[in-house]
Structures are given as C-alpha cells and as structure tokens.
C-alpha cells in the first residue's frame, strides 16, 4: 500500500483530467460557438442588388443607399436615451421595446433598431454615433424605382422574417429579401452574395486585425442585372386603361412566350413599399379586403373563361374529326336538350357553320360540337377525359410553371370530378350534364395568364412557350429549358386556320366588328361570363364579367392577350376596347382610335363594385 | 564522469526536455504580438523564456557534475539558505500582485520560494534517513512537521497560499517511510465534510456520516475497539460540519469564498472572479479534437485568458492543440511523475528515496492543482505548471529539484 498509493493517486488524477478535457473539448460543443462569438467579429458587406431593365433596355429599378441603425445588445453601455430618441424621432418606450426585442433575438448578433434612415438623419447621427457604444449604422441598398407601374411584376423587398432566418442560414435578422414578382422569384440572382470579414477581437473588444490573415473573408458579389420581358410603355398604358376597373390584362409575345404586360387592377406604386413609410403603406394595402390591391388578378384570379373557350372546343372537334368546317347547325334562340332544358343564345342568322359560328359566338353551334366530342366515345367519362387532355396540352387546368412567384391551376373538369359530384356509379351522367363546358361556363376556370397563353398557342397554330418574365441576365438571353422548349398542343397545326379565320371574322363581321383598328388585322373573341357572389349566405348573381382574347396581326402575330374586367357587362364593352387599344399601342406605338380610348378612360365601374356592398337590392347587367 | 553518464536516467531527461520545449512553443503563441518575429528577442516573453531554457542547460551540466554526496552533506546548509532567502523577502522583497514573493535585481525578478522547496526536500530527506530517526515516534514526526511547516508558514505570510500549499506534498515521502495513513484519512474526511457541508448543509452531512459509520460498523463486526474510534471520528466530523459555516464566513476571506463557490457551482460570475476560469474553459473547449493550430487560437490571440503564459499556459495547449495535444501533455507529466516514483523505489539509500518521493509529490501537486484550476475542477490557486509556465525562477527551481534527484539516482550504486 505504501508503495502504490502515490501511483494510484497520480494515475487517477490523470484519468480525471483526461475525462474532463474530453468533456470540454469533444463532447460539449457549446464552447466552440462561444469562442467564435467572443473572439471573432463578423462584419458583412452587402452588395448592390441587381438592376432591372425592361425589354427595350429602359431602367426600371435601381438602388439607393439606406442606413439602418443596428444594435448588438451585449456591447451596449449606458447612454443618453433622450438625445438618441430625439435624433431618431422615436419615443423612449419604443426604443426600450426594440432593445428588449433585440436582446431576445440574440445578445451577440446585430438587430435593427431603426430601419431606413433618411439621408439627413443619417448625416446627423453619423457624427454622434461614437457616443453610443453597441449601436452602429449598417449601410444597405434599397430599391429606387424609375417607374410607377408594374408593382405586381416587380415585387418588392422587405426585411426577412424569423422563419426565413431559421430556415436559410444565408439570411440574418435585418437582412432584406425579395418578395413577389421578379424580386421574389429571382432573389438569388438579384441579391448577389454578401461579403464576410472575420475580425479578431481582444478581450477589450478591440479589433486586432483580420482573423487568420483574412483567409475566410469573402468579397461581396454584386447582384446580376436582369432584363425582363415587360414592355414598360405597354404596362403603363394597360394600367392607365384599367383605372377604376378591376381585373387583369396579360399580353404575351406568341413567338417567344415572353410576357409583354401583366396588369392587375387596382394596383399600387412600387415606391410605396420603400423607406420608413413602407410598413404603414403595406398594412393599408394588405388590409384592403375589398379591392385587394396585393392580389395579382392576372395570375391568381380564376374566372370562368366564357366564350373565348369556344375557340378551343372548335379546335378539339376538328382534331377529333367530329365536325367539318362546312357543317352547319341551326339555332333557334338557343340549344334545347334533355327534358325541355335550353341553353339560350342571342339573335343571329341560322344555320351557321364553324367560321360564322365563332364570329357570332353561337351557343347552339358549340353545344352541338361539344356533344359530338364527348359522345364520340362509348362512355361520357372517356369523352370528357379525351377533351380534358386536349385542354391540358394548352396549359390549362394546372399550374403554368411561369417564373412569376404566384399562380393558380385554374380548373378543367375530368371524369373523376363528374363521377364524384354526380355520385357515379349510383347515378349516371351524360354529356348534357357537362354542357356548360361548351361555352366556357360551368366548371371550367382559368386565370387570365392561362387564357392569354391559350390565345398565344392559337396564334402560333399549335405550340407555345411557357410564359415567362425574365429575358436576359447581364445581357445574356436565358437558357432555362422550361422557357426555351416548345410545348406542342395535341391539336395539329392544320386545324387552326379555320378557327383563326373565325376569330378574324369576330372583328370583320362578328361581335367585335365595332372595335376594328385601322391597318391591323386582329383575331379575337369576346366573352361574357356570368358570375355569382354570396351576400348573407345567399347566392347572388352579379353583372357579367367582360372578357376578351385577341392576337394580332393575324398572319404574323406579335402580341396575344387576354383581358378580364370584373363585372364589365359584356365582352365587347370593356375588355374588347382595351384589347384593341393595347394592340394598337404595342404595334403602332400610338393610338388612332381616340374615341375608344376616351370612352375607356372616362368610364368607371366603381358604382358596379359598390352594388353588392350597399346592402340594398340591385339590378345587374344594366 | 564517463562511467556515470550512461547511468543517468535518459528517459526522464528526454521527457523533461519535451515538456520544456512544448512549454516554450505554447508560451511563444500565448505571448506573441505582431511587433517582433525573432525567437530570441529579449524584449519578448518567449525570448526571455528561451534564455531561461538555455541557462538551465548549463545549470543541468553543473548539477550533474557535482558529487552526489555533496547534496546530502550540505542539505542543512541549503535548507538554512532557503529559510533566510524567503525571510529576507519581508525586508527586501518586491510586491507583485499583492504577494511579496520576489527579489528584484534590475529588470529581472527572482522568486526564492521556488528554490525553498529543494532545500526543504533535501533537509527532510536528511532528517528521515538519519539512523536515529524513528518515523513512528511522535516527537520525530513533530520535528519532520516543523522542517516542512517552517518555510510553508513563512511563504503563507508573504502571502502566497498557493506556494505554501505545495508543502502538503511532503506527506507522500513521509507516508512512504511509514507515517500512519490515519493522518491522510483524517485530512481527506475533513476536506470531504467541508465540501459536502458547503454543498448540502450540515444536517444532511451529519445524517449521511452517521449512516456511513453505522454501515461500516455492521459490516466489520469483529472489531469492537474500532467502535470507539469510529464514534469519536463521527462526532468530530459532525462538529466540523456544523462549524463549517463559521469557518467559511468568518475565517475565510471573500476571495476564498468566491473561489469555492465557483468551483462548487454555487455561484456563476463569469465577469468577476469567475472570469479566468470561464475564459480558460472557453479556450480549451473551443479546441475540439485537434485544436486550432499553433498561433491560431482565437482566444489566445485575443488575450481573453489572463496570465495565459504563466499559470494558465495549459489553456493555450487546449485551444491550439485540442484534446489530442492536451492528452499528450497530461501523458508526459504522468509518465515523468511515475518514472520518478519508480526510480525512487529502486534507490538503496533512504535519503535518495525520500528525496525522490518529495520530487514526485511536489511535481504532482503542482500538476494537479494547476491543471485542475485551468480546466475548472479545482479552485483558483495561482501556482505554475512545472517546466511549462513562463518564469526563470520556476523553471530553474524545478530543474534543480529534478536533476539533483537524477544525479542521486545515477550514483545509487556507489554506496557499495
């Protein structure tokens, strides 16, 4: 015992030490972070966000410097609260509240106290900054807008929320991120990569030089400048025409799938969401649940397409070989089917074959055509699915896959859907049960961009590119397969000419003959869609939506568009006029139909929108 | 001379140099700033330490060249010189960090307490190995105690409690030579009662001690005589337990109380008194498996750990060399201490053996208290890590201590 006691004690101590070291160094990694935090200061260098140009090279969005007052709670020293609050023009309570919040986020990481100082506030504060230990000014770049239009396309930038900070390690509290539109979808392209400097600190929190001679430091990478497909002039004009109306315009260049204009009304000035007024303005827009200015109707609103849908039914019928262009159907004020049921139609000559059928938008003609498509197959289920598959090849009934941050699938009913609502096989259903599909009412829903894309596919006679808004990155055309590969429709090109001719006749002799533009051959189709709302739980019909699709020129289409004007009475009244003006603006660059422009600019639908909110009974469509 | 060279324990000498060199490498990192790059810059701490190391090589040559008998014969003289030198501090000493432990000659300072250990070890060995000394006699035990306590008390008065505490190491040679283990048991029980009382309060400690004694008694029924001893021990322990509060609050100074409270986890104060330990743990903990690399430690560079080149030098090892490097250093120390015990055991002369045990005990105590403090399992006591910490007095003191023994060891056969 006497000989081994010291041996035992020495060895035991050694083992205890090793265990303790193992715990400190290997098992417990809380000290690793702690070390990085108290010895290394991380300084970020924010790059310029990429500029945004329109398709003609016009600068839409650039940057302006902005200054945020940041705080690192751990480094705070007692300071003159009153003076600081005066400089920042906030109350002491607000300051205390923000400091508490910053402390909760992290005592060691910077938080924003006051975002986006004005230049004069910055100049004044910069002088005094050294008096406030723990505070510093972080320069960031904010957006500077050269256009008042296209806020829905451009999107906006905002401070990241806590969820993003948790999910994406790139972002720190107070960083800015793009939301919605191009800013949101191309965030990574536009933001660039922020630079990082690691600075070694000593125990007095003084900088003693770059950490490891700066080997981990990175330089900021400037965001990429992008050119978007929007034509700023056309966009601006579209927004002007849509004033005092609700709805959307989507204009596409058929040959490329490039979106020329994407108008939603009502809209807002993109500059409203920049600067210290941002949160106030945003709240105002956000809370407007009646006109919903933040709701991009061009992308998100799912409307029944109405008559423009007839063109596609005609195409499917030709592809399926169930009608010829010469075959006529008679119409006596409508189409009668089932047990005395009737689908009404307006007054026109009868019988009609395909081209005048489209031009006059005869419901009876398309009811016959639609039944032939569905009834070609042994069961209505098969028929409806064949029909639906054709529609899908036009990008309908599913998300389009455009590069805009939002979208909706719309709706194309299939046999599955009808089996469910009619409780098949307990009850059977037949083509007549789905007859509203013939005229684009009933179960079919489309967003304006889907409708515009369908029009572009017709203009191209059987193919389209997925609509997109990004044209070039730093002057190099985009190479995304999604946007540079043709999508071919299931309807062969040879079937398109009669339908195009029918749409041409809409202008020449049909429902839009009053809307002709001198010198431009336009193919179009009016649409008038019934729609309903709920008032106190009761289904109430509202004034019909005004819908129009068109492309021009007929032989070499430069523009295809779809227009929805909510409660705009009928297709030709609002949407048709707007379509003509947009086409003229884009192709000629000037307006000759001043009468039409005058009419649109002086007519408002605000009264119509007020009707269902008034609480009193009202009449529609007049 | 040629005959004895082969008899030196080269293994110990190798480990000694490894520790000194590794120590210097870490001092270099801990004291590095950007102004100078030469290893021999005498304005820099690492340059001075390099000089100390070179001088200690000369010292070693001298130590090993002297006759082994010389150390035994003049042990009393060394002891008396030691006592005089530490006593002289009260008249000529320089006060650094509150302790009057240094002589200052020009810019160099000299800490005699580092050498007093050697004198005491030699004197104790001489006394124990005297043919007339009987370790079992109380009066001789008392004389041995005086030899140890005299320098310890003088050092305690400087005040330098850390250095004084090291004299507890002389228990190991005395125990080896036959001192009753009861002393150790009493001290250990005392310390345990003290610490547990601080943690859990006197009531629980009393209850626990009673249960423990009862268990021991029933397990070993045979020895009725043990009953009385156990009971009296129990009563003393309970009395101590209830007086802990008084001792802690009235005899300890605030800084002692703080140090205890922090190690026992009763108080968290990472800015004040607990700052050193906390920063040291952060530095070591951030080293992970392999460390951040030499001169790459962020905590070391930022001077977050106070006194890092002296008492806290091990935190540099932990940060820059990681668990692997720390384990190597621990291993080297353990190896050296065990080696010395092994050498001591093979001595034929009792003087050599007692001295060897003293060396092992002193090295161990320094090692244990210093590293225990740096890794946060022992209260803050400022004593250096042998061969490692910066400082000429310390390095030379330990060098003399060790190499006298290696000389004695090489000469062990010449008695016959």
Automatic annotation (TrEMBL), chain A:
Superkingdom of origin: Bacteria
GO MF annotation, one: serine-type D-Ala-D-Ala carboxypeptidase activity
EC number of this enzyme: 3.4.16.4
Pfam families: PBP_dimer, Transpeptidase
InterPro entries the UniProt entry points to: Beta-lactam/transpept (IPR050515), Beta-lactam/transpept-like (IPR012338), PBP_dimer (IPR005311), PBP_dimer_sf (IPR036138), PCN-bd_Tpept (IPR001460), Penicillin-binding_protein_2 (IPR017790)
First-listed, main subcellular location of the protein, grouped into a coarse class: membrane
Enzyme class, spelled out: hydrolase
Compartment annotation: Cell membrane; Membrane
Keywords: Carboxypeptidase, Cell inner membrane, Cell membrane, Cell shape, Cell wall biogenesis/degradation, Hydrolase, Membrane, Peptidoglycan synthesis, Protease, Transmembrane, Transmembrane helix
Any one GO CC term of the record: plasma membrane
Gene Ontology biological-process annotations: cell wall organization; peptidoglycan biosynthetic process; proteolysis; regulation of cell shape
Spans through the membrane: 5-23
Topology class, membrane: Single-pass membrane protein
Protein's name according to its UniProt entry: Penicillin-binding protein 2
Species name: Salinimicrobium profundisediminis
Underlying gene: mrdA
Automatic annotation (TrEMBL), chain B:
Pfam families reported for this sequence: FTSW_RODA_SPOVE
Membrane topology label: Multi-pass membrane protein
InterPro entries from the UniProt entry: FtsW/RodA
GO CC annotation, single: cell division site
Keyword presence, GTP-binding: no
First and last residue of the signal peptide: none
GO terms classed as biological process: cell division; regulation of cell shape
Subcellular location: Membrane
Protein keywords: Cell shape, Membrane, Transmembrane, Transmembrane helix
GO terms assigned for molecular function: lipid-linked peptidoglycan transporter activity
Segments traversing the membrane: 7-25, 45-65, 77-96, 145-172, 184-217, 224-248, 321-342, 354-381, 387-406
The name this protein goes by in its record: Rod shape-determining protein RodA
Lineage, broadest ranks: Bacteria, Pseudomonadati, Bacteroidota, Flavobacteriia, Flavobacteriales
